[in-house]
Amino acid sequence: MKEENYVDTSKSNETLSFLMSGLVALAENNWMYPYPSTLIRARGLLFGAYIEQGNWKFQSISEFLRMIQTPLKDWWPFSELPDGIDPDIPMIDSQLQISSQVEELLLDLDDLSGNQKFNASELKLVLDNRKIRDAVLKVQKHPELEDAYVTLRRFLIENPWINISDGIHIPNETIQLMGKVSDFYEKPSPNMLHEGKYWLCPRCNGILIWADEKPRCATKGLCEQIVDLAQARAITNEISTLKMTFRKRVQLPGLPELELHRELAKIPGVSIALWPEADRYDLLVEKNGNMRWAIDVKDYASEFTLSNLLRQSRPPYKKDVKFYYVIPDYRERMTSGYLQKLKKLAPQAKIQLMSTFLREVTKA
């Protein structure tokens, strides 16, 4: 790659990191002034790139927000598009909802940002996300805590809210790595209350969010495409809800991991370990004592985001163990051609649909 292209790619990726973190921080502040320094920095970098092109693209923050509601490719000023993002999507929609692809990139920001610098103190998503990373690092140093980590992760997946009125019942092993419960759970936000009740998503059991009398789940466009949110069950308990970062980073991605675990457990002769080697991958599967698979379940709305992550990942190498990235079947149903496009974008990665992998283990 020519040096000028490398510099432009680096500047493009850096600008996207500032822009994403700034948008999340602004959304946390209900899109009100003062504007986050990361957003100001992103606008400055974009503005400078437009000036170099002899263009004037935006003046006010409202014009800027309108601009990023259009596809990225229509306004991105650098010759290279940023890594791992679909150029045909907008950053936010007309209701100022941040796109699921941007959220996915943000949750993996530590993985994808390299040496980029941003004001992480403004970025609640990344800061909360690091609590899980800290737990992983602790287990890496103290392998005897692996069982506690599995208990913690499974607890967060299976308990997107906890009942305060009945007392908080958290396994002792979980407390070893969780620390304070308030680091992971918080009071429900006002927009979760509807008709004086909280409503549970029929798929993930998390608390639904209400806007304009309509419910949506934690990640827009996921649960509501798989189940009918009109079937939500109401509760009136005094509760704490899992912080949104952990719902998006741990709980929702963890559902297909546990689903695969349940389906594998039905196959005779199969044993499964969850999140082995300090969560280096998701499942270690063994059949009849002589066939083994290492599995990393990936549940991303965007093939672009996932392919970028896969290109930078190093699968674990184990002798006589097959490694696969496994994709939930509903991704293919939701986006026709998802798997084919993903394999084309990340040709070196070994990828299978969950149903295909289950058939392989059954026939082995």
From TrEMBL:
Enumerate the spans annotated as REase associating with pPIWI RE domain.
254-363
Where does the secretion signal sit in this chain?
none
Looking up InterPro entries in the UniProt record yields: pPIWI_RE_REase, pPIWI_RE_Y
Domain pPIWI-RE three-gene island positions: 29-161
Q: Transmembrane residues, as ranges?
A: none
Q: What is this protein called?
A: REase associating with pPIWI RE domain-containing protein
Task: Specify the species.
Answer: Leptolinea tardivitalis
